[in-house]
Description:
Protein name: Acyltransferase
Strand order of the largest sheet: 1-2
Transmembrane segments: 21-43, 63-86, 112-130, 142-163, 175-194, 200-219, 231-250, 270-287, 308-331, 343-365, 386-411, 417-440
Number of strands: 4
InterPro entries: Acyl_transf_3_dom
Oligomer: single chain
Structural class: mainly alpha
Number of domains: 1
Radius of gyration: 22 Å
Helix content: 55-70%
Domain Acyltransferase: 18-360
Order of helices and strands: HHEEHHHHHHHHHHHHHHHEEH
GO molecular function, one term: acyltransferase activity, transferring groups other than amino-acyl groups
Largest sheet: 2 strands, antiparallel
Amino acid sequence: MGSSVRELAEKTPAGRDRYIDLLRVASLGTVVLGHWLMAAVTVGDDGRAEVGNLLAVVPELQLLTWALQIMPVFFFVGGFSHALSYRSLSRKAEGRSRSLYSAFLRARLQRLLRPTMVFIGVWGAGALVLQLGGMGGGLLDVALRLVAQPLWFIGIYLAMVAFTPPLLRLHERWGWGAFGALVGAAGAVDLARFAFGVPYVEFLNFAFVWLAVHQLGFLRADGRLGLRMPYVLAGAGLAGASLLVALGPYPLSMVGMPGERVSNMAPPTFALLCHGLWLVGAVELLRGPATRWLARPKVWRGVVAANGISMTAFLWHLTAMLGVYGALLALDVPLPETASAAWWAQVPVRMAAAAVLTALLVAAFRRFERPGATGARTAAPSGFAGPAAAVGVTLCLFGVLGLSMVGFGGLLEGRTAMLVAVHVTAPVAVGMALAGWLLVERAGRGRTHRRGGTRAGDYA
Length: 460
């Protein structure tokens, strides 16, 4: 691994924006560390294990989410990468516009969906074996419910990839106007929701809020953020979020909290969009010194290495955390009261153990994150490749989102969760995700590609 990372780092094109790679790794790493810190397992008098939230126990710490809720930065980075990737494929398409969309989806989703499907397959098979064997209870039931929750992010990301071509065309025609329209739409949704009580309208902000942040990535790819705009974004976003939380119906926490009447996350609110603007502006202000730091060979090799395993680590980090808690319970190690001095003293030990276990899981599954080498010529895609890919990504999106809501528990009992307006079970969600992935893979094949793995110049 060391030699391949060194080779990839040394082959990095001079014009590559290394800061984008750092932001991708840093945003996923921040989410992992945040989850490890915030989750607190307790055992009740009845012996049942439950996972609580540190932020609910110590509400003053909810202000930390204004830095730790970093997903807007990841989606901003996604917009940048998707714009460059789609334009690169467009230049190579040689007039085959019918196959461009399917090829783009496959190129963007291969490194995302392969490790995701392996994660779903391993946990799904494990959950089925456990249920058939009559095993369960305690922390295991909690794990079966929780480990799939981070998949919501992958579902949102799938939607961003799917909408990139039309939104990129809007960007190329209207520029800041396209971004402004999405921001205005997000504000109008919250106005209709809170001022006029329009039912269900809030779910539109799953699209408007996240796609607005994604659109900023397009602007970044075209160099249109400039020198002053990061100050504007950071200042306006921070001021807007502060005013909305202080004067409006919005909670302080930028992540979901148990039992809250309004969540900034599910569905996203205009306050979360302001939070995203502040974060994008803030990270852009750090671009200069960070770029100089990344010019150091050792630093850049570390970023290259981390990029090669980041999705695998993200998928398995909750498994590792719950595994550590499970080991503590099995060894009869007392779990202190959340936020007590003893609890804080355990935090470094638990996080170090979770990091070690995550590293072991990454070592086991990292190969699935590597793009497959394709050197053979395949038949050109048919005229149905684009529609098939669109159906595939839609199925995959709903399957992954459904699984994030229902979890892996109760496979044989038909446990359900509400997805939009339909009840979905875990087996149905897994089936949709798998069928969608296979459709995207099949529809996206067609031109001769010759790859030997990830190149440092590929914006993956």
